[in-house]
Amino acid sequence: MASITQDMRYRLSLIRYAEKYGVTKAAVKYKTNRQYVYRWKRRFDGSMDSLRDRSRRPHHHPNQHTPQEEKLISDMRRRNPDAGLVVFWVKLRQRGYSRSITGLYRFLKKQGIMAVHPPNPKYIPKPYEQMEYPGQRIQVDVKFVPSACLKNSRVIGKQFFQYTAIDEYSRWRFVEAFEEHSTYSSAQFVEHLVKAFPISIECIQTDNGSEFTNRFTSHRDKPTLLQKHLEAHGIKHKVIRPFTPRHNGKVERSHRKNNERFYATHLFYSFEDFAAQLKVYNRRDYNNFPMRPLGWKTPNEVLKDYLRSV
């Protein structure tokens, strides 16, 4: 409900005084002119709303759209209901429209015919494929060791790397330290992984890094040393979709946990020191840590339970 302003009360009091004592005395008392009194007397119809200020917006403008332009816009909007402002303006200009884009925007807004963009299609993630037994698929990735953990003058400025493999079924993890990440290091890591894992491995999944595949290099048709070793062991190599690290989510999450549980609290004074501490951490902590996806069992327990059942 519109509020009653002080000006409206003033005009009502002025009109009532003029009706009782005349227009001249009302103009003198309220310090205004007779024309003002007559104007509000004519407008007053007994309701307070008639004493409200009316809009001073002009009904016409010398630069307003012509009927021909309005028809052009209406016809074009009917044929292009979803076209955005810029696209719609360009289409109009191709048909002789000469107004600015801001003028077109004001007209569309006033007429209520702005484009209503349909919502973007909702992303539907691919259903996760549950593994049925250990070794069915193992995720492999490389982590750069934080430079803040290197505290000896002999190792400051160098880079160490953590190769990580996680079995998707049991979450059992195998890690190894390397001084370089290359296809040679990857091949050596796979050889050690095959020996350490108690069951034959069917598939190894990696990202598209050059240490794993030549997919995005100039030698895309040439297999890497890692792929040759996998083929020799009869292991399938699967690469994830480019720029989609969540497809290697288990190993990515383990790297995040490494930062919290290991790298945030440990210092390394040589490569041998780093390799020894990493091996101990993985054996004592990670593979013996209960996990919710495993029903609060440890990866070692899940792996042992499976081996007992077969």
Q: Describe it for me?
A:
The protein has 310 residues and is α/β, with parallel strands linked by helices. It folds into three domains: 6-50; 67-111; 138-309, Ribonuclease H-like superfamily/Ribonuclease H (Nucleotidyltransferase, domain 5), CATH 3.30.420.10. Helices cover 41% and strands 9% of the residues. It contains eleven helices and five strands. It has helices spanning 6-21, 23-29, 34-43, 67-79, 85-93, 101-111, 183-196, 225-232, 249-263, 271-284, 299-309; strands spanning 138-144, 161-167, 173-178, 203-206, 236-239. It has a five-stranded mixed beta sheet, with helices on both faces. The chain is elongated, with a radius of gyration of 39 Å. The mean pLDDT is 91.
